[in-house]
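Section 5.1 Outputs to date
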Amino acid sequence: MVAAVAPLTAPVAPDEALRRIAFLLERERAGSYRVEAFRKAVVTVRETPEDELRARHEAGTLQDLPGIGKSTAGVVAESLDGELPTYLATLQDKAKPLVTGGEELLARITGDCHSHSSWSDGGSPIEEMVLTAVELGHEWLALTDHSPQLRVANGLTAERLTKQLAIVDAVNASLGDSFRLLKGIEVDILDDGSLDQTDRMLGQLDVVTASVHSKLRMNAAPMTRRMVAAVSNPRVNVLGHCTGRLVEGTRGKRPQSEFDARAVFEACAEHGTAVEINSRPERCDPPDELVELAMEVGCLFAIDSDAHAPGQLEMKAYGCERAERLGIPDDRIVTTWPVERLLEWTGSAS
């Protein structure tokens, strides 16, 4: 995986300029309303013939198009004039590496076991997530939208997931051997440790990341039993954001769940379930001392972005800084593996 996409230079197509602006805004964790304005403008520009765009530019009526405001109209106009839009140039000039440290490990990352699309609570279509992953140098990406119980995140029923799997097949057919989109899910770990999706559906997936999203303040003993049962399930490949903590961000702070971490990690090691190093800055989960415990116990790890937007896929840089600083060997990080080895590990290799 490369550290960042190369800056665009003039001339640049209007839709690509708008795409890149949205990516850079997501990367710097700008407000969702700003990002949405540029993502909506991409759709409008792509649906409008170039001749009409140029005619509207000349007539000064670009803002009459749906989803085009003053800022996005300016970007379109400068692109049509063959210039690098000022808005884009400014964002590119101030873009810096997300974090210092972990660069060598980041360069060896091949994929991501945790990402979301607009099918659940992500902000972009599957195709946009894939395109950005390719631009960032990924070799593979697991699409892991939420499961049914998480209604607030528009979790996928078995029927909707079945439809999504057909789209994944179509995406892979169009890409050939250059990239692999993996069929996956972020499945809720229910109160008793069972999983929020049918076993039949889980058996059709390449990667299953399991996470606790409810009753995070459950007492330590039942929470431990709950998590041990989940990571011992042969369908589960990755334990997602295991403590559930929030350390910063717009959602505020949340303490970590209480459980016997050694017991959970020993179950992970016994059953070959990777412990996720969730790279989102607001999660930074698990904390360093638990990463060190999981390493001592013998666990595998997955450095994941938990991206809910294309510009968040690069956030694995934060996880790589932590993993490199804590001395986790590359071979124990499944997101450095080629896709063939990953699928042999998950048991879904054809």
